[in-house]
Amino acid sequence: MLDIIIVGGGPAGLSAAIAARQRNHSAIVISNDMSKSGLFKAPRVDNYPGLPGISGAQLLSELSSHAKDSGADLIIGKVSTILPSGNSFTVAYDTEILTAKSIILATGAAQTALFPGEEELLGRGVSYCTTCDGMLYRGKRVCVICLAPGAEDEADYLVSLDCDVIRITTQDVIINGDKKVISIIADGEEIACEGVFIIRQAIAPHLLLPGLETSDGYISINPSGETNITGVFAAGDCVGTPHQIAKAVGQGLVAALSASQHIKNQ
User: Fold this and answer.
1) Backbone CA torsion sign across 152, 199, 114, 245
2) Residue 61 to residues 19, 57, 65, 90, Cα–Cα distance (Å)
3) Are 122 and 207 in contact, with CB atoms under 8 Å apart?
4) Dihedral of the alpha carbons of 108, 111, 112, 114, in degrees to the nearest 10
5) Domains delineated in the chain
6) How far apart (Å, rounded) are the C-alpha atoms in residues 91 and 196?
7) CA–CA separation, 45 vs 263, rounded Å?
8) Which of these, 35, 33, 28, lies nearest to 7 by C-alpha position?
9) Cα dist from 90 to 77, 79, 104, 215, 250, whole Å
10) 10-residue stretch averages of pLDDT, the chain, 266 residues long
11) Is this prediction's pTM over 0.70?
12) Beta-carbon contacts of residue 197 (< 8 Å; ≥ 6 apart)
């Protein structure tokens, strides 16, 4: 079991990884490819102290190298579900599962618009994780909404489980049902199904981790970076404005120190 899993490989997440390793904790960062981030594409960053004029790509490269050199592992992947399990957490990403004593969320500001019916039917037919929930739909018809690289592989995995898989590539989707999913409407066509797997690049934090408190779309934390869920901490743009690199780096440090203390207290 790992000590800390950090979700997000921007400045906050990488800062947290460095601080965690300085406290001699095992740490893994799971993140999308950094080249897809807005910071990576910034040609010039002038407001990070001591490094005026550095490009976003270079800054992320330096932070990543520092984290790796400190002993943190960096994984390119998409976290789909985080589930508390006693005094630990199970994290599903792509088709893999890891466990850790503590979680640091550094996902950046959520910019994902939800489909009608998605949040209401989450856990009642709507899922983001084929590895976690695929077996529940063996022999049943499911729709896979393919909005990210790797979605076809996840659809193929469901096929291997004997699911009747309908692949959806449009973003014009409505998910229907009362107590459970009964169908989706895609581009005006209704398709009966019992499950909907949504495979997108990013998932809003409160959907990743059921019960996580948010306010105005941001994760709620105290000054120590603690969320309302014991053992879960957050840092960076996902906790609110200002969206500044220096703030994210500082909050990542604080979250890692708090996670370290939590682990020592267990």
Assistant:
1) negative
2) 17, 6, 6, 29
3) yes
4) 120
5) 2-111+205-265 (3.50.50.60), 126-200 (3.50.50.60)
6) 20
7) 35
8) 28
9) 15, 11, 13, 25, 26
10) 97 98 98 86 87 92 97 94 93 92 92 85 88 89 90 92 96 94 96 93 82 91 97 95 93 98 95
11) yes
12) 127, 128, 129, 130, 133, 134, 142, 143, 144, 145, 154, 155, 158
Q: How far apart are CA 95 and CA 50, in angstroms?
A: 40
Residue whose token pair is 């393919």:
146
Cβ pair 201, 147 in contact under 8 A: yes
Q: Quick count: other Cβ atoms within 10 Å of Cβ 53?
A: 10
* Residue at token pair 């906790």: 239
